[in-house]
Automatic annotation (TrEMBL):
Superkingdom, natural source: Eukaryota
Basic and acidic residues composition bias: residue spans: 1114-1123
Origin species: Ornithodoros moubata (Soft tick)
Location of the region described as Disordered in the Swiss-Prot/TrEMBL record: 1053-1241
InterPro entries to which the protein is assigned, alphabetical: Aminopeptidase_N-like_N_sf, ARM-type_fold, Ig-like_TAF2, Peptidase_M1_dom, Peptidase_M4/M1_CTD_sf, TAF2, TPR_TAF2_C
Name listed for the protein in its UniProt record: Transcription initiation factor TFIID subunit 2
Pfam families the UniProt entry points to: Peptidase_M1, TAF2_3rd, TPR_TAF2_C
Transcription initiation factor TFIID subunit 2 TPR repeats domain location: 632-993
Keywords: Nucleus, Transcription, Transcription regulation
Domain Peptidase M1 membrane alanine aminopeptidase: 277-507
Record lineage: Eukaryota, Metazoa, Ecdysozoa, Arthropoda, Chelicerata
């Protein structure tokens, strides 16, 4: 059990002043230098007459001047301990020590605790203002230049003005990160009113929170200033800004809503946002409360940090959510995300969390509201399927890592490898699970108090907040706009009269879920069901013992009957009397839970038992995992006749264990059942595949599902020829995508794909015709490519056994056909790019599958090419996924270095986070593994990255901590040498501990050393997609752009292992130029086309493609559809090579492109003139152990110098900290006085 104790809540620490109003003024934005100049003014109300200093949050900024009431210059000091978490020369390198230092560092600047990075001293000449209780207007002049986080500039490197190039910028942040772009009190618990002014070029539009009051042009008409007022008290983390040449669209159904998008995307914007007014109307009706703000804005930007990022009165969304009316799959996701963003305007922006421990409430309530909208928009089946999948995710996480605590405020120590007292120290995956679990807990609460009463509670909270927003700060009413666990509990008690204290203790303040094992026996004499429920794994990770009510439903011959059982022990037995008796041979329709009556074939069931099937907790009202045992015929009845989607999915999972003809028939009937939910039918196809593979020795007839597919989609006159695509029936569309993938997994008795299945799949490619279909077939073609990859089995040949190089002659005929088809699809993608390059993504995954199975040589050059900045992000992520898998299976130090370089240097934060997640899920080695990667150099590189390299992005920093934990655990990595430190025995722990000079509390990390972060000019691909013209012909315009990337010498990453290399092959101080003469090369993918109705052939419409320049990591040959196909990795040994292969396809894995320097991720641009600086001119191996020892010897000869403070210096340092004036030497980025214009412009 976790130790719990009552701690002082963070919000009980009160500041001696209150924030009432803030002015934010950005006077200049320079896109070329990626800089801005700003001014903020915070209006504070002193609550005591002895205020000596003011602490505010500020990171990355260069501060020029601080004044109080425009009269008095105030001295200030800057201190950011998160720049370096573990200071000093300690070599512990264990996560327990890092977590303690990380928690202390974040707490020392946490606004919740009244702290901040910028400490402003009240000068003596201003002390009378405090004593008289006057308002204090604290103004700060600052600038930002090439910020590492918080602001993202997208500046395409092409001809034309900034507006013509689509240059734009936007703010982002992980939780409360507004301090990254302007000084503020960066706390959700400190709302205030706002006045904002943004001066931009005349061709730009500034979009921010609040109402746009006026737009004022300068006298020369070259600049204009946007004035925004936000009169509703709002916290600083909910303030955002986006500047760019946006196209504006006012919602015709709701004029308060305005949409903004990049040039050429307006048709898509209109298509995707036409439903939004329905979401507003739904939430207002559901909550019986009006939308809390006077306006709402949606801004779509490129390279977004997350798909949806909501702020007060506005949401910043990814441009990749936009789609045309011809796209089916993306429409579901886009609508769900946009609706969720609107829900977070109510709970999350208008009503925000009080402390970190309360974050589960706004996240859970907004997810609950969005779920109610999804139920209305997409149906109850989709909603329940979503709940079931979320519950599986939470259960899987808790069983792997431990129980998720929604409110950890009473926790004494964290059971995880990261602290739980701040969102900036938590694992990003853990915070995602908090949001998911919070939604499930709110659903459980809905069952406890009732839906209507729960909605009344939400209405009560909104009413109190709306009333408080109209008051002044001096009335002390603004606390009603903050939501805490205690205030939520109180509101429920006031509205419903019910006390939920026990519920909160069980499900909010404790982690874990229940796990039930159920069995039953029917007693014929007593006509009862003897049900036994066991909880046998209560000591396992993430599982706890449940005590309380449990619902069980029994479907009998006379209907569905619900029973409420009381679970009090780990093993309980219950005798449940049946309401009906066996009918023997009497025929009568059987009533179901929905009220309908159906005829059933009861020949398979026990003649003496009236029980058809049993379900435990059918409505998912507990956080639980249920493993129930019942005969196969009961699972089959449950699949056929149960109308609940979750019940059918449970039956499908159970039937995998019963490969019988009856199971085969039940699954086949489900797939063909037009009244069955499409997700159930799709799941049944994969279950039937497993059943068929287990029955392969007794299977009779054609392969599973082939007859079904031909019957549904085949031509009437010739069934083996597929009809022209018609996706107007969405259920048939999803089934048409899924069945080929499921069939591809069928295997013969020899473990290979049946030849008739292979021919069937290739015929699907051959006869695919989409010219008359009003919907795009790109996702369908991607599914066919994925199916080809699924047919591949491990190669068994003489070549594989003797280790000879793979050639085209050594491949089987089926493998050659697969490669040829994949190559054709990849080539066609260059001529007719489809929406989001889904086909390219599928091809990359299929190629990696061929490599893993031994059909292609394991080389990484192809995937490296597709990871370049400039490719579309989904393509990059697919290539990175393949590279991670390659590195884990067959990689070397150079491959891991390449991935780490992307993590350190890639300009798109989402790519970095996604790559870290991939490495965490599929690490190159596990802890204590004997691997070539398990080196001291890797430890030092990861430690440096998470310790001092990511102060600007806590999400990425915590993701690196997750990777470090997967590789090394919480203890010191075993590959490190024993440190030269004394060992001291701790009598309490009875374990020896290293007595290190590491940080010990707050004073140790109080004054860090500022480090300069390298910066790079970031490029962008400008994604454009327009609606189809009247003739529905595809027209494509590709715009890919990128700026020069210069890697500075002193910040070049140290490789893990020294790679011997000829100096002539090192691209140092060389400029590599690319041409655009071959648009079919692999570097061309990376755009969304105008309109999407992809054709199967190049003749379906005129095509205009402006391709980006290719990068050549290998001699990759591509051709159009009329020429021979080629794919990297195949060579021929005979004169007559098979069509579709090229000699470069079997290049050895050590062949690297001279155009791509080792250790630096490649970049792609329209007119690149990419320069790379040689990391080390003398070729010295900086990672060698000899150099490490020499450094240690030098350090021993030096005087005792530590960045942290010692205990005996505490008082002196404290006095010096609060008495010094002006700026300090602790921050080279902080200045007193001076001109920001001179520094930046």
């Amino acid at each position: 059990m976790l130790k719990m104790k009552k701690l002082n809540k963070p919000h009980e620490i009160q500041r001696p002043y209150k924030l009432s109003h803030q002015v934010l003024c950005i006077t200049s934005i320079n896109f070329q230098r990626q800089s801005l100049i700003g001014f903020v003014e915070l209006t504070l109300i002193p609550t005591r007459n002895d205020v000596r200093w003011i602490r505010i949050n500020c990171k990355q900024s260069r501060v020029y001047r601080v004044r109080i009431n425009d009269q008095v210059e105030a001295p200030y000091q800057y201190n950011d301990p998160t720049l370096e978490i573990c200071q000093g020369d300690a070599k512990q390198r264990n996560l327990d020590n890092f977590s303690a230092c990380h928690s202390a560092a974040v707490a020392s600047v946490s606004p919740v605790l009244g702290n901040g990075e910028l400490t402003i001293t009240i000068p003596p000449e201003a002390s009378h203002m405090v004593q008289e209780g006057k308002l204090l207007r604290v103004s700060v002049e600052y600038s930002l230049e090439r910020p590492q986080g918080g602001i993202h500039f997208v500046v395409p490197d092409s001809e034309g003005s900034l507006a013509e190039r689509g240059a734009h910028m936007f703010t982002y942040g992980y939780e409360n990160s507004s301090r990254l772009w302007f000084p503020c009190i960066d706390s959700y618990a400190d709302p205030c009113t706002w006045k904002m002014e943004f001066t931009v070029d005349s061709t730009m539009i500034a979009v921010s929170c609040g109402d746009l009051v006026e737009t004022v042009y300068t006298s020369d008409m070259r600049k204009k200033t946007f004035h925004y007022h936000l009169t509703t008290p709002t916290s600083a983390p909910n303030i955002a800004l986006a500047v760019g040449p946006f196209e504006v669209f006012v919602d015709p159904q709701m004029h308060e809503v305005t949409h903004f998008c990049l040039p050429h995307l307006l048709p898509l914007l209109k298509q995707c946002s036409n439903f939004l007014h329905e979401a507003f109307e739904f939430y207002e009706e559901l909550l019986s409360s009006r939308y809390p703000y006077s306006c709402y804005k949606q801004v779509f930007v490129a390279e977004a940090y997350v798909p949806v990022d909501p702020y007060a009165t506005m949401t910043i969304l990814s441009v990749n959510l936009l789609h045309s009316k011809h796209i089916i799959d993306e429409a579901y996701m886009s609508r769900k995300l946009m609706a969720r963003a609107v829900a977070e305007q109510f709970f999350g922006c208008f009503i925000s969390m009080h402390t970190w421990a309360d974050t589960w409430l706004p996240k859970g309530i907004s997810a609950y509201l969005a779920g109610q909208y999804n139920k209305k928009a997409f149906g109850n089946n989709e909603y329940r399927y979503w709940i079931q999948q979320d519950m599986k995710k939470v259960i899987a996480y808790e069983q792997e890592f431990g129980g998720i605590l929604l409110d950890p405020s009473h926790l004494e120590s964290s059971p995880f490898h990261f602290p739980l007292d701040n969102l900036h120290t938590m694992s990003p995956r853990y915070t995602e699970m908090i949001s998911t679990k919070a939604h499930l807990v709110i659903r459980m609460l809905e069952d406890r108090i009732g839906r209507e009463l729960l909605l009344q509670v939400f209405n009560k909270l909104l009413s109190l907040a709306s009333s408080a927003a109209q008051q002044k700060v001096t009335t002390n009413m603004w606390h009603n706009m903050l939501l805490s666990t205690s205030s939520f509990q109180k509101a429920i008690f006031i509205v419903t009269g019910k006390d939920i204290k026990i519920f909160l203790e069980q499900w909010v303040r404790q982690g874990g879920h229940s796990k039930f094992h159920g069995t039953f026996v029917f007693n014929r004499k007593r006509n009862t069901v003897e049900l036994e429920i066991k909880q046998t794994e209560t000591q396992a990770t993430g599982i706890k013992c449940y005590v309380g009510p449990l619902t069980v439903t029994i479907q009998e011959l006379d209907g569905t009957f619900e029973h409420h059982l009381q679970i009090e022990e780990n093993s309980t037995k219950h005798d449940i009397t049946c309401h009906s008796k066996s009918r023997r041979n009497k025929k009568k329709k059987i009533p179901l839970c929905t009220g309908e009556e159906v005829d059933m074939d009861l020949s398979a069931m026990d003649a003496d038992s009236p029980v058809l099937w049993i379900r435990v907790d059918p409505d998912m009202l507990l956080l639980r995992q249920v493993i129930f045992e019942q005969p196969d015929y009961q699972w089959q009845y449950q699949l056929r006749y149960e109308r609940d989607v979750t019940s059918q999915m449970e039956a499908i999972e159970a039937l995998e264990r019963f490969p019988t003809p009856a199971t085969r028939l039940a699954l086949t009937d489900t797939i063909e059942n037009e009244h069955c939910f499409y997700r159930v039918r799709c799941a049944a196809t994969f279950c039937l595949r497993k059943v068929a593979n287990n029955m392969v020795s007794t299977w009779a007839g054609p392969p599973a599902m082939m007859t079904i597919f031909k019957k549904m989609f085949g031509s009437h006159s010739c069934p083996h020829i597929i009809r022209q695509n018609n996706f107007s029936n969405f259920q048939h569309y999803f089934l048409q995508k899924t069945i080929p993938v499921a069939m591809a997994g069928l295997r013969t008795i020899h473990g290979i794909c049946p030849p008739e299945v292979m021919k069937f799949l290739l015929d699907l490619f051959k006869y695919n015709e989409n010219s008359k279909n009003k919907f795009s077939d790109n996702y369908y073609r991607t599914a066919l490519v994925e199916a080809l990859g699924e047919t591949v089995t491990p190669v068994v040949s003489v070549v594989a056994q003797t280790g000879q190089p793979i050639t085209s002659d050594s491949l089987s005929a089926d493998t050659k056909l697969i490669l040829e088809e994949i190559t054709r699809c990849l080539n066609l993608e260059k001529l007719l790019p489809c929406y989001k390059f889904t086909v390219t993504v599928g091809c990359l995954r299929a190629i990696r599958k061929l490599q893993k199975m031994g059909h292609l040589p394991n080389i990484s050059a192809l995937f490296r090419d597709y990871t370049q900045y400039g490719q579309f992000i989904d393509v990059r992520l697919a290539a990175l996924e393949a590279l991670v898998d390659y590195t884990t299976v067959d990689g070397n130090a150079d491959d891991l270095n390449f991935l780490l370089d992307i993590i350190e240097n890639d300009p798109v934060p989402r790519v970095r986070i996604s790559l870290l997640r991939m490495l965490t899920d599929n690490p190159p080695f596990k802890r204590k593994d004997d691997s070539i990667f398990n080196t001291e150099e890797l430890v030092e590189r990861l430690w440096k990255l998470m310790n001092s390299g990511l102060s600007h992005d806590s999400c990425i920093r915590c993701a690196v901590v997750d990777l470090y934990y997967v590789l090394y655990g919480r203890a010191r990595p075993s590959c490190l040498p024993v440190p030269d430190l004394a060992v001291v025995a701790n009598p309490k722990d009875k374990k020896p501990k290293f007595n290190t000079p590491s940080s010990q509390g707050m004073a140790d990390i109080f004054l860090p050393k500022m480090e300069h972060q390298p910066s790079a000019s970031l490029g962008v691909e400008l994604l454009a997609e327009a609606a189809l013209n009247a003739s529905e012909q595809l027209q494509t315009e590709v715009v890919l752009m990128e700026e020069e990337i210069m890697v500075e010498e002193e910040h070049s990453p140290t490789p893990l292992l020294a790679q011997p290399q000829d100096i002539s092959s090192v691209p140092g101080f060389q400029t590599t130029s690319y041409t655009m003469s071959e648009p079919g090369k692999p570097g061309t993918a990376g755009v969304i086309p105008h309109g999407e109705a992809s054709r199967s052939s190049a003749e379906s419409g005129p095509v205009v493609v402006t391709a980006p320049p290719p990068v050549h990591p290998t001699d990759i040959k591509y051709s159009d559809d009329s020429q021979s196909k080629s794919l990297p990795g195949i060579s021929g040994t005979s004169i007559h090579q098979p069509t579709g292969f090229d000699s470069s396809m079997f290049r050895k894995s050590d062949s690297q492109s001279p155009d791509i320097p080792q250790g630096i991720p490649p970049r792609l641009g329209m007119n690149p003139s990419t320069s790379f600086v040689q990391p080390s001119a003398d070729g010295e191996d900086l990672s060698s152990s000899k150099l490490h020892k020499d450094k240690k010897k030098k350090k021993k000869n030096k005087k005792h110098k530590h960045k942290h403070k010692h205990k005996h210096d505490k008082l002196l340092d404290k006095e010096r900290f609060y008495s010094s004036g002006g700026s300090t030497n602790q921050s080279p980025a902080t200045f007193s006085g001076g001109s920001p214009q001179h520094e930046i412009i």
